[in-house]
Amino acid sequence: MSLSISKALRRCATLITGFVLAASASAQTFPSKPVTLLVPYPAGGLSDVIARTVNNSLSKHLGQPVIVDNLGGASGSIAAQKVLNSPSDGHLIFQGSPNELILAPLAISAIKFKSEDFRLVQMIATAQIGFLARSDLPVNNVDEFVEYARKAAAQGKPVTYASAGPGSFYHLLGEHLSKVTGIPMIHVPYKGAAPAEQDLMAKQVDIFLAPYGKKYLELHKTGKVKVLAMLNPTRLDGVKDFPAISESKSLKNFTFNIWTGYFVKKDTPEPVVVAIHKAITETLKEPTIDAALDTNSLLTPPPLELNAVAKAYADGTAQFRAIAKSINLEPQ
Predict the structure, then answer these.
(1) pLDDT in tens, 238-289
(2) Where are the alpha helices (DSSP H) in the chain?
(3) Which tens digit of pLDDT belongs to each residue from 60-87?
(4) Cβ proximity of 69 and 36 under 8 Å
(5) Residue 126, strand partner residues
(6) CATH of 128-257, one of 3.40.50.2300, 3.40.50.1970, 3.40.190.10, 3.40.50.300
(7) Which of 32, 35, 100, 208 could be 76's S-S partner, Cβ–Cβ 3.0 to 4.6 Å?
(8) Quick one: 217 exposed, middle or buried, by C-beta within 10 A (0-12, 13-18, 19+)?
């Protein structure tokens, strides 16, 4: 072996050792400062509720303050890109879902990242989907809505549906609803669920297939919105006041929900990922967290091991890409 090759091999070994030591050191010092939990929507929506439900408990298990930061826009991709532009040290955790990381890149041509650029560390909650309508829409159930929408479209006045942004899950649900019923509908995108909800109450939009929170029960009772159904296969505890979509004649198979999880950049050192995973898992085990999520009609998923988390994310990516393909979603 020549001297130059020997030196090169020694240098390579030194670099590898340095990387291993650096990763080990990062795990030993993580977190070395407050951790930011980045929410890709404005304050007031269900995503914000989730973050502010778990951040104090997560802070306790990480040993550093966990600060909630809301950054909405472009179907959550602005916040997602901020994570990718930040150091891969685990101090910026993204609270995301298929909305921002799987669907938005398929719908918005300006987005250059893909779901594989992120690593799911743990799922945190599953949201039920409510079929919401403006309070003065002259319908009281899903079948009446379908008939109303069909007549409105025939008169050249198609109904409007809100979403949390182009390419969001709620956009796809609206398009899918239009496709399965064969009724033209108009998409009205917002920067998040909260502003969409405000316009629904202001009667500026007809319906919103929305992540459900228990606040909608009060809004329904006070006549500010109508909850026509839940997109569940059966009536679940906590939402038994509303019919499951399966009880309708026209949309009985239109059942959906969506999960939320905590993500980091894919190249975050493994020891840091393990530390975050452990803290989130311990947070999910706290009865007060489960009760608080349940108060907002959120389902708490069972904590998964990291290898199972990776499989769940890969499976979810394939599922949502298939839905997007089925409605011919094209990037705009």
Answers:
(1) 899 999 999 999 999 999 989 999 999 999 999 999 999 999 999 999 999 9
(2) 3-29, 46-62, 77-84, 98, 104-107, 142-154, 169-181, 193-201, 215-221, 270-284, 287-295, 306-326
(3) 999 999 999 999 988 889 999 999 999 9
(4) yes
(5) 259, 299
(6) 3.40.190.10
(7) 100
(8) middle
- Which CATH number, 3.40.47.10, 3.40.190.150, 3.30.360.10, 3.40.630.30, labels domain 9-126+259-326? 3.40.190.150
User: Which amino acid, 79?
Assistant: A
Amino acid identity, residue 58?
L
Q: Three-state DSSP class for 287?
A: helix
Distance, in Å, from the CA atom of 216 to the CA atom of 237, rounded to the nearest integer, reads 15
The strand pair at 92-96 and 35-39 is best described as parallel
Q: Where in the chain is the domain with CATH 3.40.190.10?
A: 128-257
* Cis preceding linkage at 331, omega within 30: no
Predicted TM-score of the model (pTM): 0.79
